[in-house]
């Protein structure tokens, strides 16, 4: 006797089933390639669960203009400063992880603070600006890449400056006017 065929469910269908079993009636999301199967499953169940696309963050908690609207009475705003990089580090890495993250960039600021070159000034400015922005913005992705590039630029600039100073010192020791470069002639 043959077993009855059971239709295998897709992962997106299982996600929607779990949302429905938990009583979710509104779902927010950002459109993207990987989430499209879930969007398709949500569309198939549009009579049970409503999808609000926050592609432009209008109405999401990260929007500048948030709050209840005629279209979304359940929309609201987050506390100001409650979604920044620092808070995310406290949650994911704890107090020690957040301290070490901040200490890494504070060390860079202290080390390169006296660099008068344009690269030094710009790099230190980027590292300094990270601290007030980390209270409000999440620095994952491009902002963190720019911060790390600024750090690398400061490091490279410091190496070049040290090499130039070493070459100048060597030139002073071996160039004209250096001690022992002129022989005294007795007459």
Structure, described:
This protein has 187 residues and is mostly helical. The chain has two domains: 24-78, no CATH class; 85-169. The protein is 52% helix and 4% strand. It has five helices and two strands, in the order αβαβααα. The protein has helices at 11-21, 36-44, 85-112, 118-133, 142-174; strands at residues 26-29, 50-53. The protein has a two-stranded parallel ribbon with strand order 1-2. Helix 4 (118-133) packs antiparallel against helix 5 (142-174). It is elongated.
Number of helices: 5
Unreliable residue runs: none
* Structural shape: elongated
Summing up helix and strand content along with how strands pair, one would put the structural category as mainly alpha
**Reading side by side through the largest sheet, how are the strands ordered?**
1-2
**Domain module count:** 2
Question: Biggest sheet, open or closed, and with what strands and sense?
Answer: 2 strands, parallel
């Amino acid at each position: 006797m043959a077993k009855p065929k059971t239709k295998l469910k897709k992962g997106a269908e299982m996600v929607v089933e779990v949302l429905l079993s938990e009583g979710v009636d509104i779902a927010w999301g950002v459109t993207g390639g990987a989430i499209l199967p879930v969007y398709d499953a949500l569309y198939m169940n549009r009579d049970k669960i409503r999808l609000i696309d926050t592609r432009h963050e209008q109405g999401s908690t990260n929007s500048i203009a948030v709050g209840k609207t005629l279209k979304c009475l359940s929309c609201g705003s987050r506390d100001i400063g409650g979604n920044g990089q620092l808070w995310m580090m406290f949650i994911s890495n704890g107090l020690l992880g957040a301290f070490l993250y901040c200490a890494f960039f504070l060390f860079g600021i202290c080390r390169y603070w006296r660099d008068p070159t344009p690269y030094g000034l710009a790099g230190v400015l980027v590292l300094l600006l990270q601290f007030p922005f980390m209270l409000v913005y999440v620095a994952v992705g491009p902002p963190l890449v720019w911060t790390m590039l600024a750090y690398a630029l400061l490091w490279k600039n410091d190496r070049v400056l040290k090499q130039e100073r070493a070459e100048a010192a060597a030139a002073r020791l071996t160039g004209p006017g250096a001690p022992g470069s002129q022989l005294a002639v007795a007459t």
